[in-house]
Write a structure and sequence with these properties.
The chain is an alpha/beta fold. It has helices spanning about 15-30, 45-55, 65-70, 70-85, 120-125, 155-165, 195-205, 215-220, 275-285, 315-325, 325-330, 355-365, 390-400, and strands at about 5-10, 35-40, 90-95, 100-105, 115, 130-135, 135-140, 145, 170-175, 195, 225-230, 240, 255-260, 260-270, 290-295, 305-310, 335, 340-345, 375, 380-385. The protein contains 13 helices and 20 strands. α1 crosses α4, α6 packs parallel to α8 (about 215-220) and α12 crosses α13. It binds adenosine-5'-diphosphate, aspartic acid and magnesium ion. Magnesium ion binds next to loops.
Length: about 400
């Protein structure tokens, strides 16, 4: 007998037939003698609809009310799944974030979980009841509803698994595991049987949205074994866990991409000490995350160009801040390009193998794809390219690193 947290994403609960399918899985886990907690997402498309409604109401809106609205999608699914489970003879009860409670900080739209009171849920599970918890939401220090950022139900599930001291956390979705690249773009992508927390963290943070980045961070910190599985097929899935010694290491484990970045170049920036601080200081204060950065040395010792990327969502605010600080920073003009994509190759084996970046540059050159910005870390190499070549580049790299399925 084990204690399990099962999470079902939007497409897995897209309609009542899907919810019935989920209920069958949950019941089977209970009948096998396990204690089961379930975390649900909103039905597919519902969160987007709610976000659109908020934007239509007012482009500039109060983020606390945004959360009050977008958190409602999960409430519907938690109630529906509980009713279906009850109709199958399972003792099920729904819980919203505030009812446990899942306490978060007060940063609306991307709140972080501070504390979870698992006592009520655990005592119900010990009696054989199923607790169905609305994902993606929590309660702020001043008792307002918060949300954890898009894709946040994954984080709810892992956090609950840690709080409930569950044996494992199962993430059910519309693919049967983590693949070497998004299988919707690279048909030859291969399913990975086992991936380390570290690699999954890098894949997720570089755009592989199969798991929310923070859910992986949390799984790693609390040592929660996570399995990614299909809710539609009975297949083994992917285990995300700590590195095991002598585990055979591929040099490159996977390739991730992110279309939600925008490139900004400030031309003729003064080449003097303190200029980077002058540019990025105001952006940091505005909580805008800058990702890739390149600065050239100036040919004349006077001015240079500074290029960097921000997320698409922060683009307008970034331009606004730069315009407003133009005189302090000192630059000629802002050149912006939103039609870019970042591709990252990831693998812990990179630590001990040379030539990974070069293989990437060569494969892209062979396809005539121009690299605009490069950045590296210990276990990844990222390049920024034109979005027009994204699919071509992903497939070429997948082949170049020998990742293609037979
Ligand atoms: P859910 O609604 O269940 O949370 P998501 O849409 O958030 O599902 O995540 C699943 C999707 O992630 C898949 O449909 C797939 O297109 C995408 N994806 C991106 N990269 C990968 C990858 N490396 N492996 C598997 N799926 C990936
Ligand atoms: N429903 C939320 C979203 O679409 C949370 C989630 O699905 O994980 O982002
Ligand atoms: Mg998701």
């Amino acid at each position: 007998m084990a204690r399990i947290v099962q999470k079902f994403g939007g497409t897995s609960v897209a309609n009542l037939d899907c919810i019935r399918n989920v209920a069958v899985r949950v019941k089977a886990a209970c009948d096998a003698g396990n204690q089961v907690a379930v975390v649900v997402s909103a039905m597919a498309g519902e969160t987007n609809k709610l976000v659109d409604l908020v934007k239509q109401a007012s482009a500039l809106h109060d983020s606390a009310e945004y959360d009050a609205i977008v958190a409602t999608g999960e409430q519907v699914t938690a109630g529906l799944l509980s009713i279906v489970l009850q109709s199958m003879g399972v003792n099920a009860r729904s819980f919203l974030g505030w009812q446990l409670p899942i306490k978060t900080d007060g940063i609306h739209g991307r709140a972080r979980i501070d504390d979870i009171d698992g006592s009520q849920a655990v005592s119900l599970m010990e009696k054989g009841h199923v607790v169905v918890i609305a994902g993606f939401q929590g309660l702020s220090p001043d008792n307002r509803v918060t949300t954890l950022g898009r894709g946040g139900s994954d984080t709810t599930a892992v956090a609950l698994a840690a709080a409930f001291k569950a044996d494992r956390c199962e993430i059910y979705t519309d693919v049967d595991g983590v693949y070497t690249c998004d299988p919707r773009i690279v048909p030859k992508a291969r399913k990975i049987d086992r991936i380390t927390y570290e690699e999954m963290l890098e894949m997720a943070s570089q755009g592989a949205k199969v798991l929310q980045t923070r859910s992986v961070e949390m799984a790693m910190n609390f040592n929660v074994p996570v399995t990614v599985l299909s809710s539609f097929e009975d297949k083994p899935g992917t285990i995300v866990a700590a590195e095991i010694e002598n585990m055979e290491q591929e040099v490159v484990t996977g390739i991730a991409y992110d279309k939600n970045e925008a490139k900004i170049t400030l031309s003729s920036v003064d080449d003097r000490p303190g200029v980077a601080a002058a540019i990025f200081g105001p952006l940091t204060e505005a909580e805008i995350n800058v990702d890739m950065i390149v600065q050239n040395v100036s040919a004349d010792g006077k001015t240079t160009d500074m290029t960097f990327t921000v997320s698409e969502a922060d683009f307008d605010r970034t331009i606004d801040h730069l315009d407003r600080h133009k005189s302090e920073i000192g630059f000629k003009e802002i050149l912006a390009d939103r039609n870019v994509a970042k591709i990252s190759v990831v693998g812990v084996g990179m630590r001990s193998h040379a030539g990974v970046a070069q293989r990437m540059f060569k494969a892209l050159a062979d396809k005539g794809v121009n690299i605009q910005v490069i950045s590296t870390s210990e276990i990844k190499v990222s390049v920024l390219i034109s979005q027009d070549y994204l699919e071509l580049a992903l497939r070429a790299l997948h082949t170049a690193y020998g990742l293609d399925a037979e």
